[in-house]
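During the no-cost extension, the postdoctoral fellow (Dr. R.K.) reprocessed legacy sequence entries with the updated structure-token encoder. One reprocessed record is reproduced below for audit purposes.
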Amino acid sequence: MILGVLDIIVGAILCFASGSPFTGNGFVLFFTIIFFLKGLWSFLSSVSAGFFFDIMGILDLLSAILLLLSYIGIAHVFLLFIGIIMVFKGLYSIAIGFPTAH
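Re-encoded structure tokens follow.
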């Protein structure tokens, strides 16, 4: 559930960064490192289990790359689309994180 909240935060950062980049912002750099490690861990653990199409891990790595581009001063409208996808990914992660009551 906490990872879903982080996905929503990064999605919002990417949406806002599509208008103007967060050049030199330490907060963005922190999330870049966290999401790179999160995506790398997810992707490598799925590959080691024989599953080579981990879209969640790939999205985390892509978000880390785009956050890094925003950190160095590059803004593009593509950041908005990936940001929206990350917000929905976070909402999905939160939704499946709640236990179901029967």
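Residues 26-48 form the longest helix (23 residues). The chain has a mean pLDDT of 91. The remaining legacy entries will be reprocessed before the final report is submitted.
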